[in-house]
Amino acid sequence: MFSRIARPSLAVCSSARNFSSSSQNNAKVAVLGASGGIGQPLSLLLKNSHRVTHLSLYDVMHTPGVAADLSHISTKAKVTGHLGIDQLADAVKDADLILIPAGVPRKPGMTRDDLFNTNAGIVRDLCEVCAEVCPDAIMGIITNPVNPTVPIAEEVYKRKNAFNENKINIFGVTSLDVVRANTFVAELKGLDVDKINVPVIGGHSGVTIIPLPSQATPAVSFPQEDRTRLTERIQNAGTEVVEAKAGAGSATLSMAFAAARFAYKVLDALNGADNKVECAYVRSAKTPAAYFATPLLLGKNGVEKNLGIPKTIEYEAQLIENAMPELQSNIKKGIDFMSK
Ligand SMILES: NC(=O)C1=CN([C@@H]2O[C@H](COP(=O)(O)OP(=O)(O)OC[C@H]3O[C@@H](n4cnc5c(N)ncnc54)[C@H](O)[C@@H]3O)[C@@H](O)[C@H]2O)C=CC1
Ligand SMILES: O=C([O-])CC(=O)C(=O)O
């Protein structure tokens, strides 16, 4: 079974070298954790995108079936399935973009930090291969807890001499916070959700999630009581889904939508499209925390320009201040994990 899967994936991947390019219509995207609750719908959205010519699916289970299923869809992306660590290098070779939703999700009563012990090692091991095989690929890490998994990834790249201090190509995907903020604000204000943009900065857990509705476009205003309720709903939205799923996992479909939104912007920017801006969690010189989500102008190498913390009102400035201790401690936990 194992060797039957290995051969075709090798064959396809050697020809996949030709796919690697900075053209949106000629991009190889690898999904690591492709068989999971996020991985499957995300892979479907990518298979449905004109931007992708090679969709490479990696997991420790079920990728032959997921790849066979998706490969029957009449869109142009070639689909390859890769199973187990021995096939990871082929899965990511020549990738333009790697998305990582591999790892365990929360159950009711757990915090994202409770996932650290399992997921930190998974991200480390995946990044070790990526650092060796495709250090320049853009990487979007979805695996929780995002606040420390992104520093872990960069520490791996440093150890493998694959780290480029002049370039930011490793992102924590926080687009779901923006998607939720847009949805909730549009609902509250009766606006067209397609036309609203609410920046969300900071990190991706509890108080480190900092929505900035004062900077929304179009402009919206709230009495303070509503602003507080909105902020808390966005901060707790992941838990809202975990509780509603009652033990069957956390957000998967909305996360797949959000990760696809992130991926499409990255791929469009790789193809030279201007003005592709997305909030994401990256190494940052713009705040006291070494990693911080802000609006980023995307380009051919990842972050073209960090647009920094937008203007804030006093309430939002206080949220930023409140978030710093937890965020800094989460980042330290990731870096300490790698120095053991
Ligand atoms: N950044 C964000 O906004 C969000 C992050 N998440 C996180 O995404 C992660 C995945 O969530 P789900 O897809 O719901 O979980 P899931 O359990 O449904 O899927 C995870 C997949 O990862 C695979 N996997 C486990 N170890 C692996 C390894 N070493 N290499 C490759 N694949 C491996 C599993 O086989 C499984 O297919 C969780 O950590 C969750 O907390 C979830 C929602 C939002
Ligand atoms: O809450 C979770 O565990 C999953 C997640 O990150 C989210 O839905 O924002």
UniProtKB/TrEMBL annotation:
Record carries keyword Heme: no
Residues reported to bind substrate: R106, R112, N144, R180
Source organism, top-level taxon: Eukaryota
Annotated keywords: NAD, Oxidoreductase, Tricarboxylic acid cycle
GO biological process: carboxylic acid metabolic process; tricarboxylic acid cycle
Cellular component, GO annotation: mitochondrion
Residues that bind NAD(+): G33, A34, S35, G36, G37, I38, G39, D59, N119, I142, T143, N144, M255
Residues of the active site: H204
EC numbers, comma separated: 1.1.1.37
Pfam families: Ldh_1_C (PF02866), Ldh_1_N (PF00056)
GO molecular function, one term: L-malate dehydrogenase (NAD+) activity
Family: Belongs to the LDH/MDH superfamily. MDH type 1 family.
UniProt-recorded name of the protein: Malate dehydrogenase, mitochondrial
UniProt organism field: Crassostrea ariakensis
